[in-house]
Amino acid sequence: MRGNRIRRLVTFLGVGVASASVDAGMFSLLYALGVAAPAASAIGFLSAFAVNYSGNRALVFRVVHSRKMLIRYVLLVALNFVLSTSIVAGLVAVSLQAHVAKLISMAVIALINYWLMSRWVFGMSESSSPGNADPSSASAHLGAPGETIGPPD
Description:
The chain is mainly alpha-helical. The protein has two domains: 1-62; 64-127. Helices cover 73% and strands 0% of the residues. The longest helix has 31 residues, at 2-32.
């Protein structure tokens, strides 16, 4: 059980790094090709959104896509936007350097994301985590929405 949590956390961090790389890389490429910065940023963000949702769903939490999960993920991204903006604004207002404020907001949001993704977006609990799935259950083999897929860890 503990090994599964560590695997999930390490994979979560890897998906986050991959998502950030896609966002920054797409932005940089498009901007270098002459696309306006706001448009390049939006395309980079949307590309990272797809990588992050898919990576967390399939690799971190190992569940099959469902509309409910995607809607919850979109709501989480909206919450992230509000929190990120608020945290940065608040910390800058008390004279913290902007880049430091952004890094702090990213760390806080990563913790919140992991917790909300595991408990709400992808509906994981200790009893339904891949490492604890009953291999004889149909959902462990068929991957019903919100259920584990593949063999347990």
